[in-house]
Amino acid sequence: MDRAAGLQAAPDLVLMKNNFFLNKVAIVTGASSGIGRATALALAKQGARVALAARRGDALLELARDINNQKGDAIVVRTDVTQQEQVGQMVREVLDRWGRVDILISNAGAYIRSPIVDLDPAELQRSFDVNFFGGVYCVKAALPHMLAQKSGHIVFVTSMAGKIGVVPDVPYVSAKFALTGFCEVLRQEMHGSGISVTNVLPGRVDTPLISHLKFSWITAKISPEKVARAILAGIRKRKPIVILPPQAGLLYYINVIAPSLSDRLARYFHIEGWENS
Ligand SMILES: NC(=O)c1ccc[n+]([C@@H]2O[C@H](COP(=O)([O-])OP(=O)(O)OC[C@H]3O[C@@H](n4cnc5c(N)ncnc54)[C@H](OP(=O)(O)O)[C@@H]3O)[C@@H](O)[C@H]2O)c1
């Protein structure tokens, strides 16, 4: 039975023979949890071959088993994205297995907060290591192969915090702003190369990253599955930027046009959230 037919027969994997993602090779970093896990599953359901990367091998193995039991095709590549050598090895393992890389979802991240008055520069470094350099290393490792193929799609899961400052998040915000800048330059450099670049900027998402926090309605958490669907749509339509949900986009545009009003709204709605009691 060919793979497309096998996947079609699987109960949970919804596939069509002419599916855009069928047999595409995707790497998803941060696949052990939250948005990365949901995106890897969504890609697998569409017939993509997925390499699951993160540090927690047990969570990755469980996800790979789920996908492969449903006649999908997933491998686990345990990777700490702050280690450039490991990221290089991750891409080599994917090439050894499937011979190409079509989609890179650079998603691994950590939420590191500190008021600036108390800021230890080591915290800033820790945030940049994972939230910025993690993405840079992935691009450095995958890009030469995409350029040789003359095709590929790179997705960065940054954050609305890559466009709007949120108190007391300077380690996280600074690294996400830096990654947004990297992404915007990469997108323009790749013009005409066959490689597309998408920056995905979610507002608050219901994942372990912020499970200790609650928010007012304007920054209410959306599901990781919703972000995953937006990521896949962004790839299919080659969108340069994906912002969701709409109210997060509204806050961003207010910030561009009227920053003082945006600051007032941020204070009024406590967009930094409250600790769960
Ligand atoms: N949740 C939100 O509200 C929200 C909003 C906007 C943007 N984002 C962004 O979305 C991305 C995913 O976050 P999430 O909300 O899905 O959080 P999550 O559930 O905590 O997932 C974070 C993922 O990143 C991985 N990771 C962390 N450090 C890593 C490292 N050094 N090397 C490799 N993998 C690493 C974790 O895996 P291991 O621990 O197994 O390594 C985990 O799979 C992050 O970049 C985050 O900044 C989240």
Walkthrough of the structure:
It is built from nine helices and nine strands. By secondary structure, the protein is an alpha/beta fold. The protein has one domain: Rossmann fold (3-Layer(aba) Sandwich), CATH 3.40.50. The N terminus is likely disordered. The site of NADP nicotinamide-adenine-dinucleotide phosphate (NAP) has 30 residues, from helix 2. NADP nicotinamide-adenine-dinucleotide phosphate binds next to helix 2.
Notable characteristics:
277 residues, alpha/beta, Rossmann fold, 7-stranded parallel sheet, two-stranded antiparallel ribbon, 9 helices, 16% strand, globular, disordered N terminus, binds NADP nicotinamide-adenine-dinucleotide phosphate
pLDDT < 50 stretches: 1-11
Annotation, overall tally of beta strands: 9
Tell me the β content.
Answer: 15-25%
Mean pLDDT: 94
- Bound compounds: NADP nicotinamide-adenine-dinucleotide phosphate
- Broad shape: globular
What is the percent of helical residues?
A: 40-55%
Placed side by side, the strands forming the largest sheet appear as 3-2-1-4-5-6-8
Structural domains: how many: 1
Helix-strand layout with pairing:
Blueprint: H1 3-9, E1 25-29, H2 34-45, E2 49-54, H3 57-69, E3 73-78, H4 84-98, E4 103-106, H5 121-149, E5 152-157, H6 170-189, E6 195-202, E7 213-214, H7 224-236, E8 241-244, H8 246-257, H9 259-268, E9 274-275
Parallel strand pairs: 1-2, 1-4, 2-3, 4-5, 5-6, 6-8
Antiparallel strand pairs: 7-9
Helix pairs in contact: 2-7, 4-5, 5-6, 8-9
The structure holds NADP nicotinamide-adenine-dinucleotide phosphate.
